[in-house]
Amino acid sequence: MKYLITIFLLIIIVSLNGQNTKPPISGKAIYTFKHLRDTSLPNSIYTEKMLLMFNNFSYKYSSYISYVDDSISKSRTSNVLDYSKNSTQTKYTRRTIEELFYFFDKNEYYFVHPWIGDKVVIENRIDKIDWKILDSTKEVKGLNCALAEAKFKGRIYKAWFCPAISVNAGPWKLNGLPGLIIEAYDLSNSIQFSLESLEKNEQLIELPKAFKKVTKKEFDQLINSIKQNPSGFINAALNGSNTQNGSTAMQLNKSGSNTQNKKNQINNPIELNE
Q1: Measured between alpha carbons, how far is residue 4 from residues 10, 16, 23, 59, 249 in Å?
Q2: Among the ranges 4-13, 16-25, 89-98, which has the highest mean pLDDT value?
Q3: pTM
Q4: Which residues of 166-197 are buried (b: 16+ CB within 10 A; e: fewer)?
Q5: Which residue has the higher pLDDT, 52 or 95?
Q6: Which end of the chain has fewer CB within 10 Å, C or N?
């Protein structure tokens, strides 16, 4: 992994030496995300691999498992991949189902949530994070990083960022520093993002081809309809209905039950009231 990161940096340095203007930078970073969701169970930490696709002007943050599933599905269609070597099924593995798309040239970000046979999108203005760059440096994952601190969404975050990778991107909604965020955590250590791997990638970052734009209020109404009528949205999902009583992948598991046990409860959400 350290070798791949070194190669990635060498590509950037060569580009810088060969151009007077800011060169295009694009890459794919995988982070480990940890979240203490229930403070009554301090040893039960939700952990997930997350994917950040980024370039100079935008980034996409989503589940790495979903990315792998999509890649396998596309390979199966094109008969490129030998599936006898990929027998592990990730379909029912818990994962984040929402996606975030940031477009800095438009000063907009989009929250994308799957719905029955559709995707709903909430358009937002990008939150400006008032980072304070501190007088601290260290090597993180073989990268020379600087430290910054800011209050954001009710928490105080510290973030190590790499100026050599001069993009404003970072995991989740953490962005706006003069370099890719490599590691970040809140002061209570309830939330942690840690880079696992980094490589060159030139995949386009664009919204889904088809989606339904909704307001935050309309989206909250959809979620409330699920909470008020869980059997209705399960039936709608099984029947393929595209109604407001529909399902999201978040509520369905392999057995089809919507029962939540205590370890899935959240009393410490990632976003707190300011």
Answers
A1: 10, 19, 20, 20, 34
A2: 89-98
A3: 0.77
A4: bbbbbbbbbbbbebbbbbbbbeeebbbbbbee
A5: 52
A6: C
